Amino acid sequence: MSFDPNAAALPGSGPYGLPHSAEEARVILLPVPFDATTSYRKGAARGPGAIVEASHQVDLFDLETGRPYEAGIALFDDAQFQARVEALNTEASALAEPIIALGGDLQEAPELAATLATVNERCDELNELIHAATAKLIDAGKLVALVGGDHATPFGSIRAHAERYPGLGILHIDAHHDLRPAYEGFTWSHASIMRNAVEHLPGVAKLVQVGIRDFSEEEFDYVRASGGKVEAFYDAQLAAERQCGATFAAQCRRIAAALPREVYLSFDIDGLDPSLCPNTGTPVPGGLSFHEACALIAEVARSGRRIVGLDLNEVSPGESAAQEWDANVGARLLYKLIGWMLKSREG
Fold this sequence. Notes:
Elements: E1 27-32, H1 47-55, E2 73-75, H2 79-101, H3 113-139, E3 143-148, H4 155-164, E4 168-173, H5 193-200, E5 204-212, H6 217-224, E6 230-234, H7 235-243, H8 248-257, E7 262-268, H9 290-302, E8 306-313, H10 325-343
Parallel strand pairs: 1-2, 1-3, 3-8, 4-5, 4-7, 5-6, 7-8
Helix pairs in contact: 1-10, 2-3, 3-4, 8-9, 9-10
């Protein structure tokens, strides 16, 4: 049966209604439905499934990036991997719940120390699973777009990309620094993902953060003490510059210039204005508009930098069928990110 990109998605079709198998597709979506250490509002584990479902409503021609679908976009086809991720999330979430309820302070409940250690072990296993899957896909010539889950999920993917592209830069769009050494005792917390990437992955040469507007003083000091390895473009400062006449286009050029040639894009949906992601785990006022986010990624691609991989995290679909907005935005944002990743590799 021939594929019509202008028709409605067929029942049983892949992401974005596409017919590609994982072998045929150049871009592989790696869904990781895991949110065990979410510290405020859970739900991100349902994000990957909701994004794929919402993707069937996305028109495939894009004014800016053309026809990303022609490269082929498919889901990672490994039932054993998915079953293990889901089992790890179920187990680790149940174990983490009483620790999160105490804010990680186990002085009054020292018996939970062994439980905390087990959660960290399960998160470490998840990292290894994702690293192995991502490395295999990269070696097969695929472009990997991990879809979380909370923002702890992409560590293994970042590791695999940093091993294959030493000198890698991470463009991190988020409301939060995610630079805590640990959070609530969890070594692999979503609040620690970028600290772990900077300190444990020698292939990561630079971390550039955009949209940051909710952070601890400890994290702020960490950035200033990094010697330029971590560079933050704070949301309040960017807004103040624009109020004094700076253009967002000029700001995008400055951000892109701070990155090495090869870039891994890590996108937490709460980097956007919360009207676009009201059900995300830790929404914060401010942030990028949809068009600003797309313009920033477009500038990175047009600047001659190459986007080698990406992740999108913290999309939470809400509790009812009426709360589909987050997944709708997430599916469209993901398609834009994929489009610009492909464009950055042309020529």
